[in-house]
């Protein structure tokens, strides 16, 4: 949700009886010890680092101080989920290399690192005391009122001070104060929820890197590309439905009519012509069924990616083992793109690899679907990039952002459309094929869960 969406639950009539007030209280309450620990950590790092900087021992401590906002921000993004259902994405990019030096160089050059340090300083000095004040005020007022009978009983003198404002000198009055505290508890849930919502809005604003004009244009370009992919998938589905419900049914009816005509026992040569026409209709029916499956298989729509891939494996001329662990349904564009990528890979394995067995395995890790197609063929597959062809015969892994062939020799263009389709989804194709095999075709695609199958 956007920032305005954080205030929407406060306007709902069932806010008090929902879990929102408890989540808001927990959000503010957990910020108090976290803020206190953050303040103590920052002070210790600053004092120790400054004192020991003259002997160079304190420089690593000062570096840790600069980077201390990164783990705090990661924890705050998780804590934000208590009141905000929309995840706050991690703004940090992956280092270009491996090792600590590459990681430090990347982090120190990022704007988000310094914004997170500023957030840590603000959180340690200003925000958590305000959270403690908000939660403490509610607990003090409601708790003080509801504890009046207990205080009176514990005192033994028949009276109790109510919030240090007046004295209750009878049990009926004390229980009336308790009832007032119970009534006031849901009333104060609204201002407490407003404080939590405001705190969440501030966190989201401070921990989100503002988009530049170029970033905004790139994001809009990504959205437009996804809209084109969705429109393309919808058109494919329409053509598939038209062929399945229209042309295919007419061919079935034609074949049945010709069969019935043959049963009438017409004289030659009409009987032979009818038999030939029925045979041609049956061939056309098989071809149109294959065409429908190539446009968009109904099995993929009905049962999802694992079942559709197993269907490809069953129809493959070589044995194929399938192990796909895909939790639930994915976006239609992702399922369709991965399906046709695997289909193309297995077709190339059957045509070029000389393999006796292949396997398809994959699953979802960290929000990305990874699928590998491996065969035991002779290897030496070649990749073709947009600028020309390169050979993966030395065993190196190539990036099939352009085109490629499956296992075996020769070149082709079958994977170019697949690679283009996956790149629109933010995915990529990789091929590893040393001489002698095995050949591994690997694809990776971001896979957000499907919120709608329409």
How does this structure look, described?
This protein is of the alpha+beta class. It has helices at 20-52, 58-67, 69-79, 100-109, 111-146, 148-155, 171-207, 213-263, 270-295, 298-303, 305-315, 332-353, 414-424; strands spanning 160-162, 166-168, 320-325, 358-365, 368-375, 382-385, 388-391, 397-399, 403-404, 428-432, 439-446. Strand 3 (320-325), helix 12 and strand 4 form a beta-alpha-beta unit. The protein is elongated and about 120 Å long. Helix content is 60%, strand content 12%. The strands form three sheets. The chain has a six-stranded mixed beta sheet with strand order 3-4-5-11-10-8. Strands 7-6-9 form a three-stranded antiparallel beta sheet. Strands 1-2 form a two-stranded antiparallel ribbon.
Question: What's a concise summary of this model?
Answer:
This protein is an alpha+beta fold.
């Amino acid at each position: 949700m956007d920032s305005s969406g954080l205030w929407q639950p406060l306007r709902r009539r069932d806010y008090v009886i929902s879990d929102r007030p408890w989540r808001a209280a927990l959000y503010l309450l957990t910020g108090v010890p976290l803020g206190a620990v953050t303040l103590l950590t920052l002070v210790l790092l600053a004092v120790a680092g400054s004192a020991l900087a003259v002997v160079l021992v304190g420089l690593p401590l000062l570096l840790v101080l600069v980077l201390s906002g990164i783990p705090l921000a990661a924890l705050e993004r998780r804590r934000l989920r208590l009141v905000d259902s929309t995840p706050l994405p991690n703004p940090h990019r992956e280092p270009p290399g491996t090792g600590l030096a590459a990681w430090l160089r990347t982090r120190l050059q990022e704007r988000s690192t310094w914004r997170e340090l500023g957030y840590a300083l603000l959180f340690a000095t200003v925000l958590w005391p305000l959270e403690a004040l908000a939660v403490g005020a509610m607990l003090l007022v409601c708790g003080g009122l509801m504890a009046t009978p207990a205080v009176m009983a514990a005192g033994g003198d028949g009276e109790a001070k109510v919030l240090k404002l007046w004295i209750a000198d009878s049990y009926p009055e004390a229980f009336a104060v308790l009832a007032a505290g119970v009534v006031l508890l849901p009333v104060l849930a609204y201002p407490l929820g407003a404080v939590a919502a405001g705190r969440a809005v501030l966190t989201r604003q401070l921990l989100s890197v503002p988009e530049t004009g170029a970033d905004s244009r790139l994001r809009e370009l990504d959205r437009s590309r996804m809209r084109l992919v969705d429109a393309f998938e919808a058109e494919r589905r329409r053509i598939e439905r038209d062929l399945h419900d229209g042309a295919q049914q007419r061919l079935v009816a034609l074949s049945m009519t010709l069969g019935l005509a043959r049963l009438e026992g017409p004289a030659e040569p009409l009987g032979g012509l009818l038999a030939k026409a029925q045979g041609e209709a049956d061939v056309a029916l098989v071809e149109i069924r294959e065409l429908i499956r190539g446009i968009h298989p109904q099995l993929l729509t009905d049962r999802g990616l694992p079942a559709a891939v197993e269907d490809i494996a069953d129809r493959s001329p070589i044995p194929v083992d399938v192990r796909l662990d895909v939790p639930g349904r994915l976006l239609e564009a992702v399922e369709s793109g991965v399906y046709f990528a695997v289909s193309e890979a297995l077709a190339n394995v059957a045509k070029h690899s000389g393999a006796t067995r292949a396997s398809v395995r994959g699953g979802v890790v960290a929000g990305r679907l990874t699928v590998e197609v491996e065969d035991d063929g002779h290897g030496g597959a070649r990749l073709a990039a947009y600028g020309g062809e390169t050979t993966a015969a030395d065993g190196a892994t190539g990036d099939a952002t352009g085109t490629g062939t499956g296992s075996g020799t020769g070149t082709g263009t079958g994977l170019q459309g697949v690679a283009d389709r996956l790149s629109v989804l933010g995915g990529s194709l990789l091929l590893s094929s040393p001489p002698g095999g095995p050949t591994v075709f690997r694809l990776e695609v971001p896979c957000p869960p499907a919120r709608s199958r329409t």
